Amino acid sequence: MVDIIITGDAGKLHAVYHKSDAPAAPLAVVLSGNPHQKYHMNDRVSYAMFRAFMDIGFSVIRFNYRGVNDSEGSIGTTADNMLDIATVIDWIQNKNEDSDRIWLAGHGLGAWYVLQAMMRRPEVSGFALVSPDPSTTDFTFLSPRPNRGLLLQGTAESDDAHAFGTHLTQILKKQAQIDLETIRVKNADANYSQPADLRQMYNDLKAYVGRENEDTKLL
Fold it and tell me: What angle do CA 176, 77, 115 make, to 5 degrees?
């Protein structure tokens, strides 16, 4: 993996990129949580998501939104961050023109960004939502977009977070025709604070993406 700089709407975006040795390997973009809560591309959960895709042969990128650590500009709005996400998706696709599959994965607020990006990018073939932020309740942007995805939550997350996960599963199926598989990591909180919990989240994500990606190849 290498550190790279991508030219964004507000200046340079700092990213880390791994290119697979496999020709036409599938792609993945990892989205970190709310920068106002000190999440960034090198936090434990973002790195674990990145490694899950990397270790099953994807070309994968993670990055800091504008105003976060070495990315230029000021911390932006949702609209600003969505522009940065679009820039990074375009970058990895342009660098891998032979690949026909791309996945998105996000943690916390990044999970909500995953859904927004998927609605705007019909080429997205799969996604993972890791402990989505239960305070983010605006899903008016959802439209029919048949797809399959994964919801990962810890059993030690709040009752509100678990209720939100159930609500999210229902609303995605109803409004977007998306089947969402749920995996609960025993004893884990929303940040997978214990090493064993983080390892289990990594293993569950890797297993799901590997299985679904193989299924896609057969269609």
Answer: 15
Q: Are 126 and 100 in contact (CB under 8 A)?
A: no
| Angle between helix 78-95 and helix 109-120 axes, rounded to 10 deg | 60
Burial of 12 (0-12, 13-18, 19+ CB in 10 A): middle
Please, what is the end-to-end C-alpha distance for the chain in angstroms? 31
Contact 111, 172 (CB under 8 A): no
Residue 160 pLDDT exceeds 70: yes
What's the pLDDT band for 215 if we cut at 50, 70, 90?
low
CATH of domain 2-218: 3.40.50.1820
Q: Whole-angstrom Cα distance, residue 207 to residue 105?
A: 14
Question: Tokens for 40?
Answer: 């960034």
**Is 50 exceeded by the pLDDT of residue 37?**
yes
- Give pLDDT tens digits for 126-143: 999 999 999 887 888 889
For residue 185, give every residue at least 6 positions away whose Cβ sits within 8 Å of its Cβ, in sequence order, or none. 152, 153, 154, 155, 192, 197, 200, 201, 204
pLDDT at 187 over 90: yes
CA dihedral 190, 191, 195, 197 (to 10 degrees): 20
